[in-house]
Predict the structure of UDP-N-acetylenolpyruvoylglucosamine reductase.
Amino acid sequence: MQIYLNENLSAYHTFGIQQSCQVLVVVDTVAELMDVYRRPEWQSLPKIVLGKGSNVLFTEFYQGVVIINRLRGIDVREDENHYFLHVQGGEDWPELVKWSVSQQLPGLENLAMIPGCAGSAPIQNIGAYGIEFQDVCDYVDYLCLKTFQVIRLSRAECSFGYRDSIFKHRLYQQAVVVGIGLKLAKAWQPHLKYGPLQQLAGNCSPTEVFDCICDIRTRKLPDPKQVGNAGSFFKNPVLTEAQFQTLAANYPDVVSYPASSGVKVAAGWLIDQCGLKGFQIGGAAIHEQQALVLINCQHATASDVIRLATHVYRCVHEKYGVALEHEVRFIGRSSEVYLDMWLKEQQS
Ligand code: FAD
Ligand code: EPU
């Protein structure tokens, strides 16, 4: 285990905001992970596990222990109809997808280039281009922080939803994902429903789908190595049918998709139609190619990003009456915090 005190977090998250933490540890085994939670000197400190930090914003100095998950290893088994991959939580997700496609283990290609670790994928049930993690998930193994046992949940037990899972609810702060099981059908079928993928022929190969997705993502989304960001800053809001009809009556061009519990609206469209592309506060700005992405374009502080996010929230709420919810997880001094806090502060 590597231990660092008062460590700068720049290398451990993708927003590129200058922020530090009291203790940072890099763990390579489940035994080390347990050790971190059991050490008497860190017992009273808050703790957070990170993969690649591509979905977090540290809003201030973190007065606790940041645990970097670097549990590595991939096992592959197969039966007549499926390949089964067991992947340790600290494996790099985009590398895993690339490797699986090159090894003729198809099924993950639509989830190419999503930054992060394998162990983070179930937390928000990552999704892109017509599929979600739940579509390839067999099981999730987590370390229970009450019993220190590793427990296996079946896909059904994970309560996956849009950017949602049991790890954000019943198991919040009680579980560290240490491994995932993926089940990939040998009888591969391409998922080509998402707009730009429809240009591919039905008999295309997994590599062609992979390449097409990498091409779309490279054009649309900023590379965190060049420009700090955390992907979509807000979730696409899911409205009731009645709320959607009211919105669509005023804005007939609104981009929407059917969702299991209503109608999902493209938040990027809502923000774009507010004329906010390129809008900047301090060093933080709305990305020119994708209005749903907030970027660190000029040494942004966390406060710049929060002020910009607050502005976006207000513009969208005022214009459409739709309340956006941030997808990016805000990590405060000792716990997770939410944009509501700043919105309420400004109201009072
Ligand atoms: P982190 O940011 O390190 O952690 C995210 C949250 O999960 C934190 O609350 C953390 O405490 C918790 N967590 C992390 N690991 C564990 C663990 N092992 N056990 C328990 N809790 C844990 N997301 C999509 O769904 N689809 C996309 O298309 C997409 N595109 C993106 C594009 C860009 C350019 C960027 C920067 C981000 C994008 N994202 C996307 C968001 C991000 O890639 C995903 O949320 C990813 O799963 C985060 O992985 P991570 O390892 O970086 O998680
Ligand atoms: N749009 C605009 N202007 C914009 C952005 C989008 O008008 O600036 C409209 C376009 O009409 C476009 C539609 O919104 O057709 C949807 O945009 P896009 O296809 O780029 O997808 P998204 O809804 O903005 C979601 C996910 C992404 C995921 C893509 C592809 C969320 C919050 N975001 O974005 O995930 O990669 O679909 O499936 O669901 C992430 O979660 O970090 C992320 C990047």
In short: The longest strand covers residues 175-185. The chain has three domains: 2-69, 74-217, 224-347. The helical segments are 30-38, 93-102, 206-220, 241-250, 267-273, 302-320, 340-347.
